[in-house]
Amino acid sequence: MPLAKLFPHPESGQLIAQIQKRFAASTLQGPQRLTYSPSDYEKDVRELLTRHFPYGVLSGLRLFNVQNRLERDFGFEMDNIIHLRHGGSDFIVVIEAKKQEIKVEDGKWLGNYGGGKKCAKAQVDWHIKTLWEYLEPIRRDIDLKFIAIVASVSDRTPTVTATGHKNSEVHLCSISALPDLLAKRFLLAPSGGQTPAEVFRVSQSSFLDLLRLSLPVPELGHPEIASAIRYVERCRRTLDENLFQDFAPTSERWVINGSAGMGKSVLLAYTAAVLSSGYELSMALGELGVYKADKTFEKIGYQPDAKRGSVCIMAMSAKQLENIQGWFELFIDKFRRVDQAGAVRFHPPKFELCRDAATVKTAVRECSALVVDEAHDIQPFAAKEIAAAHAEKKFYLVVACDRHQRLRFAGSDARIIEGVNFRDKSKRLRQIYRCPAPVYIASLALMFRWFAEIGPKVLPSATDLRDQFGFVAIEKVDQGYELMIRSDAHPANSWCHTVAEFPNARAAFAALQRERVARREVLWVRFCEEDPDFDYEALSSNVTYHNCRIQDAHKISDKYVKGQDYPVVVIEGFPSFMDRYAAADGDSSHEDKMWAFRRELYLCASRATCFLYFICNVAETVGENAELRRIKEEISRLLLHR
Predict the structure, then answer these.
(1) Which of 31, 169, 233, 319 is the most exposed place for a label (fewest CB within 10 A)?
(2) Where residue 84 falls among pLDDT bands split at 50, 70, 90?
(3) 491 CA to centre of own chain
C-alpha cells in the first residue's frame, strides 16, 4: 500500500486520545487516579510510531558518549530512532518521549527530573552528537543529517524548532502534534504530485543495522555473541582514543596506576606520543585539535632534544611491547588527522624488551624519557639500573603499574620501582571500560578469594577499594565489605549474563561455532585434565587455545596472554591446588602456589572485553563450584540493582 495512504495511520487519533486519557487519569487524586508511568508512555509512543513505520523503528537503544566519560551519566538510552531519505539527504530522526509538560524558558526546554529541572533540548542534542560520532565513519558519500524531536504527553507543551549540533534540527511538540510534524517535514501525506520521503526498515538501513547490534535478545539478556563483539569493538575504539583526557604528568616522573581494564597501556602510549612529538591533543565542543606541549614540558621538567636521546618505550614481554606499539601508532595517526597545519613531527622512539641488564643500562643512559609498561613485573636488575640513572636526572620517567597483581598491599606510596619514590606522582585510573563490570568483579573475586567459604583472603582497605578499584559505595560488615560499583563506561554493562557457565567443553565450543567467531576473538585456557569426550585439535584450530595444565603454565600467561584483549574468554576447569593453603611446620609453599595461580587466573579472566565463560564439569573443579556460584549470585544482584 502506498505510504501516502498510510500516513497518518487511521488508528493514530484513537491511540493519541487514549494516551491523553491515561495521562489525565494519572494526575487525579484519590481512588480515581490511575498509574501511568514514564515507561508506559514510552511504550505508547513506540506503538504509535510502529503503526506509522512498520519494522522501521529502533527503540530502547543505549549509547555511550565519550564526552561524558568521567561523569556518572555516561551511558544513556534513546527512546526511538527512524531513518528516512528525502530530497537527496538521509535523515536519522530521534524521537524522545517525555511524560510531562515541557516548558520553554530562555531558550531551554525544561522538565522536572528527580526534584530538579533539566533541559530536554540539551539532552537530545547530546543524542545527536553521540549518533554522529557512531555513524559518521560509515556514511561515506551520504549526506547524513539529524533531527531530534521531544514529544511531550501534555497538549500545553508548545511547538518549537531550534538548531542543534552540526546544524541539526531540534523540535519540541506535544504527542498530538507529532504525526502532523512528521507529515509536514517529510511530505508523508503528499498532495499535488509531491514525492514523500522514503522510510527504511531497520534491516535496510546500514545505520540502524549498526546501532541495533547493541540491543539484547530477550531470551539471552544480551545481543547474540557476534553482534555483541562487533558493537563493543566499535565503542572501544572511540573510548580508547579518548583516554588522552586523563593525561596529567607530574614533575620528574609519573606513574599511571590502575587495575586491568582501566586503560593504563593506552594512556602510556599517548604519553609517549606527546613526549615524541611535543604536541598534545585537545577537545573543544566535541572537536579534536592539537596544540604545543611547551607548558606541560616546562611543568614536568622535560627537555626534548635529539642530542639527549629519543624516548624509549620498555615492556616486560614481546606481546606487551607489540601492544603498546600498536597504541602508539594509533595516536600518531590521530595526531596527523587533526593536524591541519602539518606542524606535528614525531621523533621515532625506541622499543626495548626488558630482558637483561646490558639492554636496560644502555637504554637508560641514552634516552631523554623512559616509558615502562607493567612496572609491577620489573626485575630487580632493571629496577636497579633505572633507579640509578634516574637519580642522576638523566631522563623523564613514566611507568604504568597494576599493584593489585602483587596480592599484598603496601600502602599507596609503595615503591613500584625499588629506589624510586612515586609519592604524589600518581594518576589513579578508576573507570573500568575494557571489560564489563561483572567480568571485572569476577576476576578480582577469583584472584583475592573474596567468595571462598573458608581460608585466607586478601581484603583491601576501604580506601583501596574506592580509590584504586573503582567501587563507589563501601559498607563495612562483619566479615568484610559490602560493595557497590557504578560503571557505565562499558556498553555491555546494560546486558545480563556476560559472566556465565557452560556444562562442558562441547557445549561451549558449539555455541562459539554457531556465532562464527574468529580465532583471534576467543581465548580458551584449560587448567584441568583434558575432557576425554572433546576434540581439542578442532578447538585449537578455531580459537586461541592454551593448555595451562603444564608445569610452566604461568609463563604462558605472561608471554601470550598478558596485555592482550579478547572479546570472549573461556576458563576450563580449575586445578586442585587452587584452594590448597594449609601450612605444615611453617611451610607456606602451598599457599604461595595458590596465590600465584589465582593471579594467573585473574590475568586470563580480565582479558575478556565482552563475555567470560566457565566450564566446571571436571572432578578437580567440584570444590570450586561453590565459590564460582556465589560470585555469579552476587553479580546477578549487582545487575538487578544497577
Answers:
(1) 31
(2) very high
(3) 6
User: Lowest mean pLDDT: which of 238-242, 456-460, 463-467, 488-492?
Assistant: 238-242
Instruction: State the DSSP string of 241-306.
Output: HGGGGG----SSEEEEE--TTS-HHHHHHHHHHHHHHSEEEEEETTEEEEEE-HHHHHHHT----G
DSSP β-bridge partners for residue 222 = 217
480-484 and 473-477 strand pairing: antiparallel
Beta strand residue intervals within 549-591, DSSP E: 566-572
Q: Distance (Å, rounded) from C-alpha 330 to C-alpha 335?
A: 9
DSSP string across 407-464: SS---TT--SBTTB--TT-EEE-----SS-HHHHHHHHHHHHTTT-SSS------HHH
Average pLDDT on 43-58 reads 94
Amino acid occupying residue 81: I
- Strand 522-526 and strand 566-572: pairing? parallel
Q: Pick the closest to residue 446 from 264, 588, 635, 642 (CA basis).
A: 635
pLDDT band of residue 104 (cuts 50, 70, 90) is: very high
Q: Is this prediction's pTM over 0.85? A: no
Give the whole-angstrom CA distance, residue 432 versus residue 404.
14
